[in-house]
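Team,

Forwarding the record for the chain on the shared tracking sheet. I've put the sequence and predicted structure together so nobody has to dig through attachments.
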Amino acid sequence: MKIYETHAHLDFDKYDKDRDLILKKALEMGITYINNIGYDDKSIIGSFALADKYPQIYAAAGFHPHDATKYDEELVRKYAKHPKCIAIGEIGLDYYRNLSPKKIQKKVFAEQIKIAMEYDLPIVVHDRDAHEDTLEILEKYMPKKVVFHCFAGDEIMAQRVLANGWKMSFTGNITYKNNNLHGVIRNCPNDSFFIETDSPYLTPVPFRGKRNDPTKLRYIIEKIADIKRISPNKVAEYAYENSIKFFLPNK
């Protein structure tokens, strides 16, 4: 079973003591590639440092909506040209915590979409409680390759995403009792989804409340398999093939 972890933050300090061990275990369970995703200046630099050190790690450069007021276009452009840059992200809108003014969030989101299109890179979208504005901005520019990281919309939104040729990524929150994504997952075509942990966040059941890491992808795979009524091996296979085509088409 080959597995592609499409969204993690292994540059965090909380992995400093056992990062090598986690990556060793990940490889042993079939995790061939890991995308480490930047969201501010420090994490962008840290993500590409990991990509330079570990052959299985690739990185993305972008400013999260929480950090929109600190947006550094020059830094994003610098790392967009890095040979192991697989996307611009995570970028988007967050009206839940609203740590940056909405007007600035929208402006920075649009500017980074244009950079992604200029460099022909996929876009990793963060969208929390901002579905309509997120889609409106994306549909204004219509980039070809977009994935909604940790998809949290309803089935109507999912159909709109799919109609535009974009993808959805599912993480540990699908294992929680109060999640409402079963219909979205069940109806998502097998060529349109990815899997991720968003480590260290969104740890799946039965480890909820503890630090997450890529080795826990198996619980996400198993949950999707249960919802779709197919084997875990098929879920991993579909997600892997989709992710390779999207992020590493030359592999």
